[in-house]
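Q: Is it fine to ask for two folds in a single conversation?
A: Yes, each is treated on its own. Send the first.
Q: Here.
A: Result:
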Amino acid sequence: MAKEDKPIVKCSVSNCTYWGEKNLCQADMIMIDIDSHASRDYNTEFAGESFDSEHQDIAESSSATCCHTFKPKS
């Protein structure tokens, strides 16, 4: 996906490194997974490297998902 085609991702978690003004996520890449994988460690550099995208899951609702891209501000 070209940089100009980057989707708008809204996030209200203001203590995330990638949080931007007007609740816009500034990460280059987002990793979303289902809650049952919330504690999974992908051992990657978030927002710029690859993620484990080989598996597929089904979520019943948005509340059953979690963002693995989150990185607390230092």
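Q: Second one now.
A: Result:
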Amino acid sequence: MDHGEKQITVIDENGNEQLCEVLFTFESEEFKKSYVLYYPLGAEEDDSEEIEIHASSFNPHADGEDGELEPIETEEEWDLIEEMLNTFLDEEEEQE
């Protein structure tokens, strides 16, 4: 996946493909990784429940195209992602 790409296809643990909307991406100097936060496409249309936001690290391929999503491995990474998400959501609220 490319930075700035707005939709990605994620394959779940059952091998099912799901089209997801990218919320935002960021890079971490501390962990030397890139991260993507995303949610299943269509989830924003259902206001009756909160959107489940997923996060993964990713390594772009050498040609700059696509990449491999990988699970978040440590509590420290989750803390960083939560902090970045809260900052993103606060900025979104200020713009409304």
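Q: Anything structural to flag on that second result?
A: Two points. The longest strand covers residues 17-28. The CA atoms of residues 20 and 40 lie 4 Å apart.
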